[in-house]
Design a protein that fits this description.
158 residues
Length: 158
Amino acid sequence: MRILLVRHGEAVPYDTMPVDERRWLTERGRAGVRAVAYALAEKGLRFTRVYTSPLVRAVQTAEILVQHVHPACDVPVLVHVPLSAEEGSPAQALAVLDSARPDDTVVLVTHMPKVSALAAQLSGGQRFSGFETGAACLITRQQGSAQVEFMIDPSRLD
């Protein structure tokens, strides 16, 4: 199974929208997520399942990824509350993987610090402190072992 962990794109600041759950992506955030989506498409990555935090900026990130990686295919974006920053443990956030097939590629869109905790748990304890907004990390899990395949940071893309 392949798991693509994604931190939502850059969101508007709190002074624009003081209700955290409603903060939306900035244009720069949208552009960064699109750039990551194009890079994923160039690598030939295809998603079978997409789960996101219910917060607006995470849902927007998931929708942009699906739209640009799967333009002709309808992969549903499913809300999974434990992926939100304040709700649920990493184990609860990863529970959606229990129903995944070995050949699935599952996308999990979430927030800091949860995204780095999920990456560490999935990869067997590696540290992931530099998860920038819009960044994506692909982890492959097979028969109890895990390997980080790549990490894409939108600030490092042309």
